[in-house]
Amino acid sequence: IAVNASNGIYCAGEFSGTVDFDPGAAVAETTAIQSDAFVVKLGQSSAGISDNNSISGISVYPNPAGNVVYVDIPKLKGNVSLAIYNSIGSLVYKQKNIEMFNSIDVTNQPVGLYYLYVMSNGKIIASKKIVKE
């Protein structure tokens, strides 16, 4: 994974079997006979999902992030959890019963693009893109 000066994100790798390359709710499956390579270029505004907030006032900072990401949800109500996925859809962080103000250590995560989802009662109420430098 690499980020250029224009915040374009390049990701390359190898896969086998069937893979869904769409990080959003849509499905964009590709099947390899044995194994195959891929290269993906994502622009800052075309990373597969858009930020979604059904609750106002959510803050995720700093973004781009270094070793810690702060997630502030001042209008938090009820049983709320959050999850962070990397650019290939693997869950890298999950926390249930979050607080209004949260700090998340991302020191061990590689540089790249991540997707943060805030969920209440099993439904996504907010989503944000995070770039880890």
What's the topology here?
Elements: E1 2-3, E2 9-20, E3 29-42, E4 52-53, E5 59-61, E6 68-72, E7 80-86, E8 91-95, E9 101-105, E10 112-120, E11 123-132
Radius of gyration: 16 Å
Helical segment tally? Answer: 0
Number of beta-strand segments:
11
Taking the sheet with the most strands, its summary is: 5 strands, antiparallel
> How would you name the oligomeric state of the polypeptide chains in this document?
single chain
Share of β-strand residues? over 45%
N- and C-termini, Cα separation: 11 Å
Uncertain segments: 45-49
Spatial sequence of strands, sheet with the most strands = 4-11-10-7-8
Helix fraction by DSSP (H/I, runs of at least 4): under 10%
Rounded mean pLDDT is 80
